[in-house]
Amino acid sequence: MKDIPIDECHNILITIASAFDEICRRHQIPYYMIGGTMLGAVRHNGFIPWDDDMDFGVERTYIPKLLEALSVELPSHLKVRTLDNCNCMVSNFYKIEDTRTEVIENWHDNPTGIGINIDIFPLDHGRKSYRQTRLFAAYIFYLLILKDYIYFDPKFRRGFKKIMAVILRKTNQIPLKKRLKYIDNLIIKHTKEESGYLINYYGRWREKEIIQKSIFGTPQTYPFENITLYGVANPNTYLSALYGNYMQLPPETKRMKHTNVMCYK
């Protein structure tokens, strides 16, 4: 297997993102660059140099239409992956992968069964009030933290986290997919479209991912490497909420990649 350097990884990701963007535009599905991809667009006009994936958000009401379009219209070497069609998925968001490649992620010893990919996160409406939104989100984040402990191998944890992972893995009797479906259905049941907030429940930043709708706003175009992608309307407020002083580069010890190995099959 031939290893893939980071610049080649970026080229593959741009190809995937371009296909995703084209399909969204064709079907009038609004989307946003989020997380590190939005940060890269603002701070670097493209990729954070050490980043090896891309993150996008789509309001949940558009997800069924998006998944149907992706399943039919993606180039043959690209596949959309969900909890229902891929055993390697361990959370209820979505991926588009290049099936000619394979990655080993930082919390695994073995290939995940998926290639270089972009992540597509459902963005959910909150509850009617900010207080209700925060309380419900805290409950969902608690359930997701328990799920993470059950899933991750204890040898990649230390101290209390390792103890909890061992206990929960031994005592858990509920299959991962069933647990995630329950959480997703709970989110859908309690969402209120009149809420003033959008939430990425499956993002890494937990409560910081509760964002006012006005900050997302109408998607705006941004240059990203050699293409143009859509992002949030108010990037300064959004990125400050997630990262604080987002224009300052982190120390080298915190410039983490998601993968240990990227290679062609």
The CATH architecture can be given as 2-Layer Sandwich
CATH structural class: Alpha Beta
Count of DSSP E strands?
11
How would you sum up the major sheet? 7 strands, mixed
Structurally, the number of domains stands at 1
Beta content comes to 15-25%
What class do helices, strands and sheet pairing give? alpha+beta
**Secondary-structure element order, N to C:** HEHEHEEEEHHHEEHEEHE
Roughly how many Å apart are the termini? 6 Å
The rounded Rg comes to 18 Å
Regions with pLDDT < 50 over 5+ consecutive residues? none
Number of helices: 8
Mean pLDDT level: 89
Task: Tell the overall outline.
Answer: globular
CATH topology: Beta Polymerase, domain 2
Helix content bin: 25-40%
